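Hello forum,

I keep getting stuck at the same step: I have a sequence, I want structure tokens, and every attempt I make locally crashes halfway through. Rather than fight my setup again tonight, could one of you with a working pipeline run this one for me? It's a single chain of 43 residues.
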Amino acid sequence: MNDTFLGSTFHFHEMNINASKGKHILRIINPQGDERAILIEVR
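Reply #2:
Ran it on my machine without issues. Output:
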């Protein structure tokens, strides 16, 4: 998130994170190198 590596998931693709209020970019990359970035907002 915001260019900081948060970790990896296996089987169940869920992860708890503590994000500050505001807008953040969440980037997800699969083992094949495909990636997607989304903008999320924490209120």
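The mean pLDDT is 93. If your local run keeps crashing, start a new thread with the error log.
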